[in-house]
Specification:
By secondary structure, the protein is mostly helical. The chain has helices at about 1-15, 20-30, 35-50, 55-65, 70-85, 90-110. The protein is globular.
């Protein structure tokens, strides 16, 4: 089912290669399939074409966490905090702040 949805989304992307929602949706589908490298490519492409897509920062940060790349996750959350604050995206800002707080606590526990 996920693979069929993924193929459908990729087909739609051919007609709209810079569509932020499609890039986000494909990244999420790859995440569900545990294909982290493909998910990362689509999140990166999304944020290159639309750095104001505030919802992507949280999920990209979580992907980095799943890849054991804590510093990349922290950097992503911090970048997202700046963007969400500029955009007035309070819900996304609060999610990022919470995620950053949790990972920062985890990082401190390792030392």
């Amino acid at each position: 089912m996920i693979e069929a949805r993924l193929e459908q989304l990729k087909g739609m992307l051919k007609d709209n290669p810079d569509d932020s929602f499609l890039l986000y949706a494909i990244a999420q589908e790859y995440t569900k399939l545990n294909n982290k490298s493909e998910a990362l490519k689509f999140f990166d492409n999304l944020l290159k074409t639309n750095p104001h897509y505030t919802g992507a920062y949280y999920h990209l940060g979580k992907l980095y966490e799943a890849m054991d790349q804590a510093q990349a996750a922290i950097d992503t959350y911090k970048q997202g905090l700046v963007i969400t604050q500029q955009r007035g995206a309070h819900h996304d800002y609060n999610e990022l702040k919470g995620a950053l707080s949790l990972i920062a606590d985890d990082e401190e526990d390792e030392y």
